[in-house]
Fold this protein.
Amino acid sequence: MALLTIEHLTKRFGTITVLQDVSCTVEPGESVALWGPNGAGKTTLLRCVLGVLPFEGTIRIDGLDVRRQGKQARRLVGFVPQEVTFYPTLTVGETAAFFARLRDLDPEEARRRLAQVALDDRLDQPVRTLSGGQRQRLALALALLGDPPLLLLDEPTASLDVRSRAEFITHLQTLLDQGKTLLFSTHRFEEVEHLARRVLLLENGRLEADTTPGELARRLFPETTHYRLRLYLPEAQRPEALQALRAHGFEVWMNGHGVEVRVPADEKAAPLRLLSRAGFEVTDFELHT
Amino acid sequence: MTTTTRATIGLLARKELHDALRNRWFVLYTVIFAVLSLALSWIGLAGGQLYGLAGFGRTTASLINLIMLIVPLMGLTLGALSLAMEREQGTLLYVLAQPVVPAEVLLGKLLGLATALTTALSIGFGLSGLLLAWRGSTMGLGAYLGLFGLTILLALLSLSLGLLFSSALPRTATALGSALFAWLLLVFLGDLGLLGSALVLRIPVEQLFTLSLLNPLQVFKIAAILLLRSDLQVLGPAGQYAMHTYGMRLLPLSVGVLLLWSLLPLLPAYLFFRRRGAL
């Protein structure tokens, strides 16, 4: 059974239709990106799934109707909003304990989740003094309270610098490996590439396509069908690696530090997999268009 | 009501109380109310020594007027700020994304803010009461406690009205502005409007009394005067009509109307809040 089912979702604000007849499902363990321009309806869709906005249609989380069984349904969801705002008078520890109690959980659970995102050393720090990256990590810790199977993230890295973004994405990848289901909106293709298995394309409130990150790449960068993958290997292994890749039909050549491979846009990891299985030691890689 | 629901409301109420006690508006109102009620009691007691019962009358009348001026302002502004400010800051979205329902959030806020207001009023009444007791006032303890109870009811109904503005209007400034306009309407324009209408339209005395019940502040005034003086002569013909028609039933009737005013705004507030959600 799908973890999330959306059927004929329509949302209007007065005379403006923000979402029109959107239907889709998300299976357990899937990571699905919501992609579309500003005003496409991504944030509204996430808020409807949370049940914080009235809507037409049906949304079910693990069979629970979000409109009629909202409270039970929201127990299965963790949410990270686009702009994270916490109560300015509370500390990190107090904030986590408050939201843990709101979920009927022991405050000790809050401490565990803070440790998971490396914030357990900031329990007494007021939340208003946290950096953007720390606030986002706190939001992720709160979203994990009660171990909900579904995480909804609304452009979670929009306000983060490069380093914080990379850290945050690593946290999300760990959660995906642990079997969490992710539905997130983003404007960054690299996040889709790193995290998503499926992409829902929204345009003017309509679901235009249910596709893959590779297909999205082809739509976004139609001229980029191939990339150059630079692989770093110990010098002694390079000639053999070159031969192994050529034997599998890759266009390969040597460079100063290793080998370079021409890879199709939707098969970028294939040479890495191949060399790894064959026992080669790839120490690093770079991707170039 | 389930245990989980009670726990959620209690948690949200404690959070609201925690915030209210750190709200500079709330602290300012509390200090102003405490200082003014203390000052009025002091002046009234001084007058009482000179003019006997007339001085006591002035104290109670001044206290009632002070309460009618400040308490609705406290309740209306606190209520108006609560949901609208959180909505604007984004924290309301975060709370509603948790396993809670809008009714729990609304009741939690109501309970927390009502407790905060009761605390503020207790400080003002407590200090004045101590002063009155120390200087040997003739005001009975029962009447004083009765006035305290009525004042809490007035605070509660102002809070309910404030929450109605807060749930219906999307912006803090709009909600606060509407609450202040309502305060002006209730405190000044309601009284003057009724007086003007009575003169121009020659409204019969029974209709004048019925119309005055539409303003909860007038109902509070009737109940407070009844409690302290047992008659409504100071309210003129309308007061005499009310005493003649309802007699001693007027006090419970007024309390009933105040209770109704406290509860009535909560229904549309809930409906607006449920419809508007976090936006």
